[in-house]
Amino acid sequence: MNTIFVVSGGDAPGINALLANYAQIATLHGDTVCGANGGFPGLLHEQIQPLPFTMLSPWMGRGGSILPSSRDPVLSQAEAGELIRRILHDQHIDNMVLFGGNGTLRYIPPLLRAWEIPYIGIPTTIDNDVPGSERTLGFDSACNFAYQAIDGALATGHALNGRLFMVETLGGTCGNLALAVAQGAGAHAVIVPEFEYDENWLARRLKTAVERDGYGLLVICEGARGARTLADTLPALTGIRMRDTRLGHTQRGGTPSHSDRVLAAQMARLAHHHLKSNQSGILVVRNGELTLTAALSDTPVMPNRELYLQINGLNDEHTGN
Ligand code: F6P
Question: Is 127 annotated in the active site?
Fold first, then answer.
C-alpha cells in the first residue's frame, strides 16, 4: 500500500508527529508513504516526495508541517478530479491521508468519495472548531503555548501590582481556543466572537480584579469585537495601565504537547488500520474515543456558554450586555 499525505489549510502542532508515526507503522507493514508538496496545488503539479520514517523522525517534536500546505481552492476546477485520479494512478498511490480544519474536511472528503479515492481525514487545527469532534490535533499544544506567554506576563503582574493584561489568542471566528486558555489560566474575563458584551461591564470587572487580586487578566479571541481596540478603551474606562500581548502565529507554531503527540500516534495507527481495511472517513474524537465518521456534523461549533458565563462571573440574567 502506498499512501499520500496532503496538508490543506493552516498547519498545526502534531502534524509532523502523525506523519512520522504513520511512516513508522507503514514501514513495519511493508507499505510506503509520500507527500504532496504544497497541498492540493502541489499534488496537481505532481510535486510529490517520498516520506521515509528516517527523514520524518527528527521532525516529530516540532510544530508546523514539514510538508508545505496551501489554502488555494484548486479542486473547484472542473478537471481537478480526473487529473488527481490520473496522477495517483501513475504514481502507484492507493489512498490519501488528508490534514485539515473545518473548511477542508467539510469540502474535500465528498469530492474524494465521488472520485473514488480512499482517504482518511484528520482534524488538524488549533481552533478546535471541527463539528462532531471534541478535539482537534494541535489544540492542546496551542493552549500550552498560551500558558507560557500568560505566565510570563503575569510574573510582572504579581511583581508590579496594579496593571491590566490582555492576551489575544488565535482562533479566527471561533472562541473555543480563547475560552479554554482563559479557563486554564484563571483569567478574570474572556471575550469571544460568538457572545456580545458591554465594554463598561468589562471595565468594571477588570478594575475590581485589580483592586482585589493585584492584577487583571483578560483573554480575547482575535476575531472578537474589541480585539484591536480594547487595549486603548479599557485604560480610558478604568484609569488603569494595560499591556497587551498578541500571540499571533507564534501560538500556531509551538511545540506539540504530550497529549497532542499521543493523539497523533493514535490517529496514525487508526488511519493506517482503516486504509488497510479499505475504509474511508474522518477520524473524530467522540466521547473521548477516536471514531471514523463518514461526514462532519452540520451543527456549527459553539463555545460552551456556561463556561463563558462562569469565567466572566455572569449568569443567564446578567450576561454582561
Ligand atoms: O484556522 C487556524 C488559524 O490559525 C486561525 O486560528 C487563524 O485565524 C487563521 O488560521 C490564520 O490563518 P492564516 O495563517 O492563513 O493567516
Answer: yes
Q: What residues are in contact with ligand 1 under a 6 Å CB criterion? A: 10, 71, 101, 125-127, 170-172, 222, 252
CATH 3.40.50.460 residue ranges for the chain: 142-252+303-318
* DSSP string across 176-239: HHHHHHHHHHT-SEEE-TTS---HHHHHHHHHHHHHHHSEEEEEEETTSTTTTTHHHHHHHHH-
Q: Compute the average pLDDT of residues 41-48.
A: 98
Provide the pLDDT for residue 78: 83
Residue with CA nearest ligand 1 atom 13? 10
Percent of all residues in the chain with a pLDDT value above 70, rounded to a whole number: 100
| Range scoring the smallest mean pLDDT among 51-60, 74-83, 102-111, 223-232 | 74-83
C-alpha cell at 256: 506539540
Residues of the chain with CATH 3.40.50.450: 2-138+256-286
Whose alpha carbon is nearest atom 7 of ligand 1?
A: 172
Amino acid identity, position 114 = A
Residue nearest to atom 15 of ligand 1 (CA): 10
Which pLDDT score is estimated for 274?
98
**Set of cell numbers at residue 308:** 463563558
Entry pTM: 0.97
315 C-alpha to ligand 1 centroid (Å): 31
Q: Is the dihedral of CA 67, 73, 74, 76 positive or negative?
A: positive
Q: Is 2-138+256-286 a CATH 3.40.50.450 domain?
A: yes
| Per-residue confidence (pLDDT) for residue 77, from 0 to 100 | 84
Place of cell 521515509: 52
pLDDT at residue number 297: 85
* Mode of pairing for the β-strands spanning 32-36 and 189-191: unpaired
Please report which confidence band the pLDDT of residue 76 belongs to, taking 50, 70 and 90 as the band edges.
confident
CATH code that applies to domain 142-252+303-318 = 3.40.50.460
Q: What is the mean pLDDT of residues 108-116?
A: 96
* Pocket test residue of 69, 70, 106, 127 for ligand 1, highest count of atoms within 8 A of CB: 127
